[in-house]
C-alpha cells in the first residue's frame, strides 16, 4: 500500500516538473564540472614580439603563450562599426568549426584610429578614440573602454582552451565594471534580471536546445532556443557580449558584486571562441549594436498581428470549420486558424490525413471567404517510409543527418522511426524549402499563409540522448552535431523562410513560427515560448520571456494564451487574454487532454471580457505595425522592459511583469493571483512623466511603485503624456477587413503643449516597402491647436485618414501618491468646420491641420 | 386523413408568407439605411433624433453621418461608426438579418441582398436572397417531408411504446395479485414450520444436552493433553533443569532457526519465549507453547506454514496467526498417538462431532420439520421472484420514454457505429461503449443518466454518465444528440472534450413538428 501511494506521488510530481533524469545538470556534464571548479589562474600571456596592429587596418593579432606547456593560441581583435569589437582566440593551427549562417552578413570593419604598443600592453582605439581596447600582456586580459570608462573586461585568468578527440572545451570570463545587473542569455524560464549562480547554489545557465516537457519556473535549465548574448547594465553604462558559437554552453553569472559591477564565466563544449563586445553605452545602443550583427525582423504581414486560434489538434476539417464559424457568429476577431500534427497523413509532413482532412482546399476556401488564414505545422523529422516522396528524395540526395559511422540516423518521433534533415547542407534547405510549393504540397493554397516549425531542437524521443540528435552525429562536411546543435532550429526556419518566399515568388512576406531558435532567428521567424502551463505563474513567465527576447532581437514573441498543459480557470483565461493582447504574437493553444476552451465556449461574462481584450488588440494595430516597421529601421524592441527605457531607475531593474509597448504604452499584466482588486504598478520616468489610463480616468506621475485599483475588465493600461497614440477604433472581424478604416488619435499634451507620434502605412503583405519604398512613414506633431503630419520616409501612395481626435487634458495633476484626473474632448472637425476624415493626409509632404 | 390535413396547412403557410414578402418588396417604407421596418417610425426626418437609450438628442442630419453620437449606437444604423451598432438587412426573398455594425463596409458580403457593402468600389455584392430563399424553402420542404415520414414511423413507435406500457401495467396488476397470493402461502407455510419446529426443538432438547456434555468432556481432555505435551517439551528443553527455559536452551535447537540462516539468534529464541529471556513452566504452557508447537510440527514434517510475505508484514503476520490458531484448536479431538516427539496430524477442516443417533419418534419429528422448512423456503422464493419482476416493471414505468412513449421500443436494442479506430455502441436507456477494432476490451463510456436537452425540448439529448475513468482523468461520459430520421442509426461519434463523447443518433422517435422560420415570419408579420 505504501509502495503504491509512493508511486502515485512520484507520478504526480513528474507530471508537473521537468525530467531531470533526462536533462542534465552541470554535475553530470564533464566539461562543465571540470571548468566550473577550476581555480582562476593566468595560464596565458601575450608574446609581446608577436603583436601586430596598425591604423590602416581594423585587426590586431598576437600570440598567446601558454605558461604551463599547453599549445600556443592566436588572438585576433577587430574593430567594428557601431562601437563594437570582436575577439577570437584559437589554437595557431585551429580546425575549430566557425559558424557560417548566423550573422546578417560579414560585420563591417572600422579601422583603428590609434595604436599604442607598449612593453606590457597594447591599446587600439576606434571612433575618434571614443572606443578603446587595451590588451595587457601578462597576466593576459583585455579591457574595453567607452569614452574613458572601462565597460567590459575579458578576464585572462578564466581563459582555458583544450582539445581532445571528442570535445574541445574552452572558457573565458567577462566583467562589466559598470554593470550592476546582468540581463539576456535567452532562452530560460526565469526572471528578467538574471539570478546569481555559483557552485553550491544555482546551476549555471545552460544552452543546449531541448524539448523540455513541463519546464520549470525560475530555472537555468536549457529550453528550446539559445541567444548567447549577455548585457551588463547599470545607471552609468550598458555593455554587452555575444558569444558567436552554437555548441553546448554553460554560463555562471553574478550581478551586483562587491565592486558594484557584475561578471560572467562562459564555458563551451566545442567550436570557436568568437566574442563580440558591444560598448553601448546605454540599453538602446547596445541592442542596436547587437541587431546590427544578427539583423532585424522584416515586417510581418499585417494579418499575423491579429488573433490566432490553435489547438492540439482540431482533429477534423469539420471541427476546424465549426471553430471558425463560431468565432464569426459569436463576434470574436480571428485572423488565422492553426492545425497541429494530426492534419497530416501519419505525421508525414506536406500531406493531409485522407480521412479527417479529405478536402483541405474546401477548408481553405471557407477560411478565405471570410478573409481568414490557415497555418499548418511542419516539423523537421521525416518519417522513414519508402514511397513517401519527401523521404525518398532526401535519402536519394543524401540530405539526412548521419550517425558517427556514416549511416543515416534514425530515431523515434511523432511518425515513429524518423530521419532528420541536415539543414546545415544548403541543398537540404533548398530541397525542404521546395516542398512548400503549391505543387509539392498538394492541397495547399495561398490561404495556407504561414508555417509552424515545431520540434526543431531537434526533438528525438530518446531520453538517453537528452531527447535530441546524438552529439557525435554528422552533418555535411563531417561537421559534428555537437558543433552546431543550437542552430539546428535556426537553419530549419531558414529553409522554411526561403521555401515560402520562393512559393510566393517573393511577393509575400513569409510567416513562420518556430519553437527552437538562435541569435539571428528574427530574420526568418516569430517564436513562442513552447509548452507552458495553465497557471498564473506561467502567465508572468510569458511576459518575462518575451521582454527578454525583445531586447535580444527576437521581437515577434508570444506564449500560448491560457497555457498549453492543464485547464485554466475562467479568470485566468480572462487575464491571459488581456496580457496576451500586449505581447507581439497573440495565439491561444492547448494540449490534447485539456478541455476545449475556444472563447465562445466560456460563460457569457468571461466571453465579454475576452472579446474586449481581443478588440483592444485590434484597436491598437497601427501601434503594433508602426513599431514593427521602426524595428526594421533600428533593431529596437517592440515591447520593452522598464530598465531599457529608463536605464537610470535602479528600482525598476527587477520589474518584469510590466510591458512598455514602444515608448508610449505601459501595461501591467495581471498575473499575481486570483481575485486581484488592486496591484502594485511601477510608474517610471520621474515627476514630469505622466501616465494617463486608457481604460479609466486614472492619472499617475512617474514616481515609482504605487498601488492602483484593478478592474476585472482590463489590465492596467496607461498612455504616456506627450505621446500620440494612433488607433483604429472600428473593430472588424479581422485585420484584412480593417484595412481601409480611418484612424483615431489619442493624446495628452506635455507642459509645453506638444505631443508626438508616428504612423506607418503600406500594403501589409509584400516586400515593396523594402524594395520600392512603397510605404508612408509619417510623423504626427501636436503643437497647441495645430496638428502637423510630416512624411518622414517612403513614396507609397497611402492616405492616412483620421476621423477623430481624442484629446485628454490633465484636470488634476497627480500629487503625493494620489491619482490625478483628465478631461476628454472629442474633435471630428477642423477649425473650418470640415470633417477631419475628408482631409487628405499624405498627399503632401507636410500638412498642418488647425483645430481651432 | 390527419396527416393530409397537416400537410395542407403547411403549404398554405408558405403561400401566405411569400405573398406578404412580396408586399414588403413592392411597398418599401422610406427609412434610414440599416433600419428594420419595425423601427422605421423611430427615425423621423422631421424631428430631432433621440437615442434609444434616451441619453442624447441630435439633429436628424447626424443620423448615419458615420460618426457615433449615441452610446447605444442607435444613431448609426447604417454605418460602422458605432462599436455596438446593429445593421438590419431586409433580405427580401429570404430571412431578414441583424448584423454587427463592424461588418458594414468591411469588404465581406454578409447580407444576401448586398446592402451591407455600399461604400467600397472594390467590392459589389450581388443580391442572392431569392436564390438562398428558394434553397431554404427547398430545405424546409425536405425537412418537412422527412418529418412527415418520420412522424409516421414515430406514430407506430409510440403505439408500440404505449402498448408495451399498457402490457407492463397489466402485468403489474397481475403480479401484485400474485404477490398477495404468494405472501399468503408464505405466511401459511411459516405457521406450519413454526409449529413443527417447536415440537422438534422440544424433542431435541435432551439430545443437545448430551451433545454439550460430550463436547465439554472432549475439550477438557484436549486441554489436558496439550498441557501434558507442553510440560513434556518444557522438561525436555530445560536442559539445566532450573525450572526455566532460557534463550540459550532454545538456541541449541535448529527448529527455531526461523530465517533458516543456520543459527538460532537471540531474537529468534526470544520470539519463542514470548519476548522474555527465560520463562517458567506456567508461562511456557500458556504463552510460549502456541508459538513453539507449529515449529515442532513443521520440523516433524506435519505442518506447513503459509509462505511468508516480507513486503506486507502486518498482513502476513495476521494470516499466520489465524492459521496457527485454527490448527491448534482441533488437534486433540483426534485419538492420542503413540510417539512422544510426533504431534498428531492436524485436520484440514474442523469437524463437528457426529450427532448422536435419534430415536424413531424424534427422527420423525425432525423429518417433518425439515419438510416444512423446505416448503417455507420455496414460498419465500416465490415472493422474492415476484417482487423482482415488479421492481423491473416499476423501473420501466418510471423511465421517461417520451411524452408519447415513442422511445420505449429502443430499450433493449443496441446500435453500432465504427470509425477507423473503434466500434461504438449505443444501447438506449442502458449504456454507451467503445471497442477498439484491434482489441477486445470494451470501455464503458457511460450508463443511462437522463434526458438533458434544453428546456423546450429535453428529448433532443441523452446523457450517459459515470463511465469508466480515464487514466489520470475524469470518468467518461457521453451525450447523445437525438435527431429526426426515418431509421434508427448512430450517424457519428466524436470526442469534443477529453473523455466526453458525443453521439449523433437518428430515429423516427425524435421527429416532431418543427417550429419553422416560416412560422416565425408569419407570427412577426
TrEMBL record, chain A:
Transmembrane segments: none annotated. Residues 1-17 form the signal peptide. Residues 74-251 form the Glycoside hydrolase family 31 N-terminal domain. GO terms for molecular function: alpha-glucosidase activity; carbohydrate binding. Keywords: Endoplasmic reticulum, Glycoprotein, Glycosidase, Hydrolase, Signal. Pathway: Glycan metabolism; N-glycan metabolism. InterPro entries: Gal_mutarotase_sf_dom (IPR011013), GH (IPR017853), Glyco_hydro_31_C (IPR048395), Glyco_hydro_31_N_dom (IPR025887), Glyco_hydro_31_TIM (IPR000322), Glyco_hydro_b (IPR013780). SUPFAM superfamilies: (Trans)glycosidases, Galactose mutarotase-like, Glycosyl hydrolase domain. Residues 635-725 form the Glycosyl hydrolase family 31 C-terminal domain. The keyword Cytoplasm does not apply. It is found in: Endoplasmic reticulum. Pfam families: Gal_mutarotas_2, Glyco_hydro_31_2nd, Glyco_hydro_31_3rd. This is Glucosidase II subunit alpha. It comes from Zophobas morio. The lineage of its organism: Eukaryota, Metazoa, Ecdysozoa, Arthropoda, Hexapoda.
UniProtKB/TrEMBL annotation, chain B:
Keywords: Calcium, Coiled coil, Disulfide bond, Endoplasmic reticulum, Signal. Residues 165-231, 369-399 form a coiled coil. Residues 225-260 form the EF-hand domain. Gene3D superfamilies: Mannose-6-phosphate receptor binding domain (2.70.130.10). One of its GO terms (biological process) is N-glycan processing. The keyword Calcium applies. One of its GO terms (molecular function) is calcium ion binding. GO terms for cellular component: glucosidase II complex. Residues 1-27 form the signal peptide. Residues 312-351 have a biased composition (Acidic residues). Residues 304-359 are annotated as: Disordered. Residues 412-513 form the MRH domain. InterPro entries: EF-hand-dom_pair, EF_Hand_1_Ca_BS, EF_hand_dom, Gtb1-like, LDL_receptor-like_sf, Man6P_isomerase_rcpt-bd_dom_sf, MRH_dom, PRKCSH. This is Glucosidase 2 subunit beta. It comes from Zophobas morio.
Amino acid at each position: 500500500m505504501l509502495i503504491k501511494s509512493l508511486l502515485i506521488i512520484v507520478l504526480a510530481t513528474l507530471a508537473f516538473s521537468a525530467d531531470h533524469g533526462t536533462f542534465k545538470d552541470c554535475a553530470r556534464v564533464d566539461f562543465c564540472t571540470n571548468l566550473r571548479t577550476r581555480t582562476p589562474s593566468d595560464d596565458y600571456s601575450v608574446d609581446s614580439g608577436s603583436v601586430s596592429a596598425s591604423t590602416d587596418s581594423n585587426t590586431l593579432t598576437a600570440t598567446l603563450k601558454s605558461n604551463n606547456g599547453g599549445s600556443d593560441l592566436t588572438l585576433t581583435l577587430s574593430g567594428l562599426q557601431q562601437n563594437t569589437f570582436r575577439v577570437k582566440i584559437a589554437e595557431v593551427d585551429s580546425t575549430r568549426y566557425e559558424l557560417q549562417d548566423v550573422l546578417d552578413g560579414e560585420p563591417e570593419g572600422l579601422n583603428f584610429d590609434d595604436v599604442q604598443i607598449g612593453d606590457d600592453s597594447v591599446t587600439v582605439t576606434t571612433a575618434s578614440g571614443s572606443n578603446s581596447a587595451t590588451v595587457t600582456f601578462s597576466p593576459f586580459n583585455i579591457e574595453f573602454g567607452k569614452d574613458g570608462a572601462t565597460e567590459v573586461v575579458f578576464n585572462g585568468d578564466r581563459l582555458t582552451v583544450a582539445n581532445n578527440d571528442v570535445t574541445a572545451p574552452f572558457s573565458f570570463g567577462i566583467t562589466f565594471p559598470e554593470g550592476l545587473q546582468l540581463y539576456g542569455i535567452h532562452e530560460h524560464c526565469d526572471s528578467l534580471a538574471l539570478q546569481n549562480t555559483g557552485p553550491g547554489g544555482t546551476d549555471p545557465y545552460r544552452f543546449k536546445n531541448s524539448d523540455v516537457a513541463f519546464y520549470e519556473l525560475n530555472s537555468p535549465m536549457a529550453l528550446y532556443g539559445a541567444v548567447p548574448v549577455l548585457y551588463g547594465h547599470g545607471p552609468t553604462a550598458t555593455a554587452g557580449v555575444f558569444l558567436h558559437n552554437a555548441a553546448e554552453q554553460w554560463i555562471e553569472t553574478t550581478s551586483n558584486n562587491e565592486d558594484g559591477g557584475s561578471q560572467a564565466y562562459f564555458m563551451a563544449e566545442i567550436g570557436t571562441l568568437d566574442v563580440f563586445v558591444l560598448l553601448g553605452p546605454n540599453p538602446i545602443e547596445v541592442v542596436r549594436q547587437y541587431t546590427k550583427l544578427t539583423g532585424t525582423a522584416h515586417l510581418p504581414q499585417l494579418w499575423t498581428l491579429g488573433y490566432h486560434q490553435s489547438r492540439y489538434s482540431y482533429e477534423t476539417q469539420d471541427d476546424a470549420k465549426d471553430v471558425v464559424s463560431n468565432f464569426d457568429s459569436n463576434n470574436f476577431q480571428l485572423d488565422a486558424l492553426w492545425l497541429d500534427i494530426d492534419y497530416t497523413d501519419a505525421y508525414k509532413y506536406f500531406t493531409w490525413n485522407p480521412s479527417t482532412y479529405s478536402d483541405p482546399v474546401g477548408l481553405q476556401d471557407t477560411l478565405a471567404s471570410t478573409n481568414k488564414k490557415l497555418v499548418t505545422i511542419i516539423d523537421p523529422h521525416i518519417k522513414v517510409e519508402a514511397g513517401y516522396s519527401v523521404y525518398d528524395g532526401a535519402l536519394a540526395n543524401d540530405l539526412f543527418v548521419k550517425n558517427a559511422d556514416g549511416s543515416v540516423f534514425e530515431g523515434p518521433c511523432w511518425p515513429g522511426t524518423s530521419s532528420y534533415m541536415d539543414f546545415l547542407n544548403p541543398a537540404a534547405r533548398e530541397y525542404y524549402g521546395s516542398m512548400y510549393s503549391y505543387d509539392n504540397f498538394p492541397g495547399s493554397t495561398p490561404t495556407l499563409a504561414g508555417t509552424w516549425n515545431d520540434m526543431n531542437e531537434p526533438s528525438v524521443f530518446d531520453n538517453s540522448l537528452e531527447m535530441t540528435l546524438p552529439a557525435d552525429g554528422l552533418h555535411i562536411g563531417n561537421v559534428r552535431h555537437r558543433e552546431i546543435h543550437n542552430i539546428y532550429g535556426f537553419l530549419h526556419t531558414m529553409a522554411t523562410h526561403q521555401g515560402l518566399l520562393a512559393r510566393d515568388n517573393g511577393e509575400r512576406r513569409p510567416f513562420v513560427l518556430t519553437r527552437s531558435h538562435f541569435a539571428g532567428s528574427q530574420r526568418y521567424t516569430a517564436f513562442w515560448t513552447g509548452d507552458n502551463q495553465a497557471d498564473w505563474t506561467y502567465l508572468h513567465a510569458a511576459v518575462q520571456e518575451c521582454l527578454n527576447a525583445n531586447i535580444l532581437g527576437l521581437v515577434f514573441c508570444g506564449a500560448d494564451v491560457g497555457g498549453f498543459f492543464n485547464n485554466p480557470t475562467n479568470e485566468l483565461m480572462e487575464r491571459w487574454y488581456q496580457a496576451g493582447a500586449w505581447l507581439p504574437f497573440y495565439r491561444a493553444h492547448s494540449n490534447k487532454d485539456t478541455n476545449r476552451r475556444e472563447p465562445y465556449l466560456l460563460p457569457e461574462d468571461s466571453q465579454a471580457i475576452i472579446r474586449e481584450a481581443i478588440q483592444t488588440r485590434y484597436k491598437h494595430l497601427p501601434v503594433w505595425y508602426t513599431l514593427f516597421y521602426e524595428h526594421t529601421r533600428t533593431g529596437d524592441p517592440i515591447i520593452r522592459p522598464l530598465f531599457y527605457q529608463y536605464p537610470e531607475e535602479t528600482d525598476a531593474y527587477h520589474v518584469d511583469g510590466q510591458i512598455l509597448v514602444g515608448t508610449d504604452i505601459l501595461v501591467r499584466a495581471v498575473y499575481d493571483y486570483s481575485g486581484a482588486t488592486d496591484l502594485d504598478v511601477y510608474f517610471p520616468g520621474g515627476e514630469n512623466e505622466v501616465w494617463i489610463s486608457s481604460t479609466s480616468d486614472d492619472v499617475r506621475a512617474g514616481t515609482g511603485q504605487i498601488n492602483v485599483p484593478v478592474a476585472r475588465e482590463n489590465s492596467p493600461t496607461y498612455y504616456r503624456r506627450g505621446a500620440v497614440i494612433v488607433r483604429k477604433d472600428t473593430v472588424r472581424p479581422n485585420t484584412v477587413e480593417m484595412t481601409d478604416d480611418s484612424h483615431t488619435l489619442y493624446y495628452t499634451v506635455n507642459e509645453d503643449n506638444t505631443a508626438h507620434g508616428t504612423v506607418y502605412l503600406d500594403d501589409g503583405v509584400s516586400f515593396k516597402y523594402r524594395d520600392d519604398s512603397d510605404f508612408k512613414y509619417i510623423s504626427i506633431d501636436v503643437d497647441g491647436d495645430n496638428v502637423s503630419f510630416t512624411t518622414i520616409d517612403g513614396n507609397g501612395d497611402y492616405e492616412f485618414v483620421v476621423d477623430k481626435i481624442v484629446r485628454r487634458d490633465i484636470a488634476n495633476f497627480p500629487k503625493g501618491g494620489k491619482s490625478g484626473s483628465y478631461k476628454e474632448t472629442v474633435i471630428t472637425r477642423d477649425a473650418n468646420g470640415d470633417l477631419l476624415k475628408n482631409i487628405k493626409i499624405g498627399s503632401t509632404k507636410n500638412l498642418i491641420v488647425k483645430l481651432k | 386523413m390527419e396527416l393530409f390535413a397537416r400537410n395542407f396547412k403547411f403549404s398554405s403557410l408558405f403561400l401566405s408568407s411569400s405573398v406578404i414578402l412580396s408586399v414588403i418588396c413592392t411597398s418599401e417604407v422610406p427609412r434610414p439605411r440599416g433600419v428594420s421596418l419595425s423601427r422605421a417610425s423611430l427615425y423621423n426626418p422631421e424631428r430631432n433624433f433621440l437615442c434609444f437609450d434616451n441619453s442624447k438628442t441630435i439633429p436628424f442630419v447626424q443620423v448615419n453621418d458615420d460618426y457615433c453620437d449615441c452610446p447605444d449606437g442607435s444613431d448609426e444604423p447604417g454605418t460602422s461608426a458605432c462599436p455596438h451598432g446593429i445593421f438590419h438587412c431586409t433580405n427580401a426573398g429570404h430571412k431578414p438579418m441583424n448584423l454587427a455594425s463592424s461588418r458594414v463596409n468591411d469588404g465581406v458580403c454578409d447580407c444576401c441582398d448586398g446592402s451591407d457593402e455600399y461604400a467600397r468600389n472594390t467590392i459589389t455584392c450581388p443580391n442572392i436572397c431569392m436564390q438562398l430563399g428558394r434553397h431554404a424553402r427547398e430545405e424546409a420542404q425536405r425537412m418537412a417531408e422527412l418529418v412527415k415520414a418520420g412522424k409516421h414511423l414515430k406514430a407506430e413507435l409510440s403505439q408500440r411504446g404505449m402498448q408495451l406500457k399498457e402490457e407492463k401495467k397489466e402485468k403489474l396488476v397481475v403480479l401484485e395479485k400474485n404477490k398477495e397470493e404468494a405472501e399468503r402461502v408464505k405466511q401459511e407455510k411459516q405457521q406450519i414450520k413454526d409449529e413443527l419446529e417447536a415440537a422438534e426443538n422440544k424433542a431435541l432438547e435432551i439430545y443437545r444436552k448430551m451433545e454439550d456434555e460430550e463436547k465439554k468432556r472432549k475439550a477438557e481432555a484436549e486441554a489436558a493433553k496439550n498441557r501434558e505435551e507442553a510440560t513434556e517439551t518444557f522438561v525436555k528443553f530445560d536442559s539445566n533443569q532450573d525450572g526455566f527455559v532460557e534463550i540459550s536452551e532454545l538456541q541449541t535447537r535448529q527448529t527455531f532457526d526461523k530465517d533458516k540462516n543456520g543459527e538460532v539468534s537471540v531474537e529468534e529464541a526470544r520470539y519463542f519465549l514470548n519476548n522474555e529471556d527465560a520463562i517458567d513452566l506456567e508461562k511456557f504452557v500458556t504463552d510460549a507453547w502456541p508459538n513453539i508447537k507449529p515449529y515442532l510440527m513443521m520440523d516433524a514434517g506435519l505442518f506447513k506454514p503459509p509462505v511468508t510475505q516480507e513486503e506486507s508484514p502486518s498482513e502476513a503476520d495476521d494470516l499466520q496467526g489465524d492459521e496457527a490458531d485454527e490448527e491448534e484448536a482441533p488437534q486433540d479431538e483426534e485419538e492420542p498417538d503413540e510417539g512422544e516427539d510426533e504431534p498428531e496430524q492436524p485436520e484440514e477442516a474442523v469437524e463437528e462431532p457426529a450427532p448422536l443417533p435419534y430415536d424413531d419418534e424424534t427422527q420423525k419429528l425432525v423429518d417433518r420439520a425439515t419438510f416444512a422448512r423446505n416448503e417455507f423456503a420455496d414460498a419465500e422464493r416465490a415472493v422474492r421472484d415476484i417482487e423482482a419482476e415488479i421492481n423491473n416493471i416499476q423501473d420501466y414505468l418510471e423511465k421517461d420514454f417520451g411524452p408519447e412513449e415513442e422511445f420505449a421500443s429502443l430499450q433493449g436494442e443496441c446500435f453500432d457505429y465504427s470509425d477507423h479506430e473503434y466500434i461504438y455502441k449505443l444501447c438506449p436507456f442502458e449504456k454507451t461503449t467503445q471497442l477498439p477494432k484491434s482489441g477486445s476490451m470494451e470501455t464503458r463510456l457511460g450508463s443511462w443518466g437522463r434526458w438533458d436537452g434544453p428546456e423546450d425540448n429535453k428529448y433532443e439529448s441523452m446523457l450517459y454518465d459515470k463511465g469508466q475513468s480515464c487514466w489520470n482523468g475524469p470518468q467518461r461520459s457521453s451525450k447523445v444528440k437525438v435527431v429526426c430520421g426515418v431509421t434508427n442509426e448512430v450517424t457519428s461519434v466524436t470526442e469534443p472534450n477529453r473523455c466526453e463523447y458525443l453521439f449523433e443518433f437518428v430515429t423516427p422517435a425524435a421527429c416532431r413538428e418543427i417550429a419553422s422560420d416560416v412560422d416565425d415570419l408569419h407570427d412577426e408579420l
